[in-house]
Structure formats: C-alpha cells, structure tokens
Fold this protein.
Amino acid sequence: MQAEIDAYGKLFQDANTAGILRGGDACQPTAAGFSVQVKGGRTETTNGATVSGSRWLNGYWVFDCKDRDDAIQWAAKIPAADGGTVEVHPIFEM
C-alpha cells in the first residue's frame, strides 16, 4: 500500500513540476455516492452505483496537456493504469 501511495505522490510532484497539474482528488467508494435525476419536475436520488457492476471511480486528476499524445503519456503514468484502466476526458472549454 505504501508503494502505491508513494507512486501517486511522485506523479503529483512530476505533474506539478511540469506545470500541467490543475487539480484532482481521491473519491470515496461507489457506495458513498449517489445520483440525482429530475423526471417530470420531481427530483429523484439513487444511492450508490446507478449501473449494475459499476466500477469505482478512485479519483480524478485535471492535467492541462498540450494534445492527445501528451494526455496519453501522462495517463500512462497514473499507477491505476498498471493492470487497470484510466479514462481520459477532454474538458469542454467555453
């Protein structure tokens, strides 16, 4: 566990030094979350995962990458990518 914590600390330090780190945080397990929907003017909430078999979103990072290739290189450095999956979503800029 300590090795994984250290790996995330190094990633944080590297991204910060590179000047691309814009934010990020760890997330609590799926069971702690909830979803909100409005249907016909009524607000409905659902506790936990809304899709059966949903995976846990461990956390998120906001990196200001110059292009897709740069984003891929940084995503590959995230410890969860080793044996797991890291999703990359461009931010919609207005």
The mean pLDDT is 88. The longest helix spans residues 2-18.
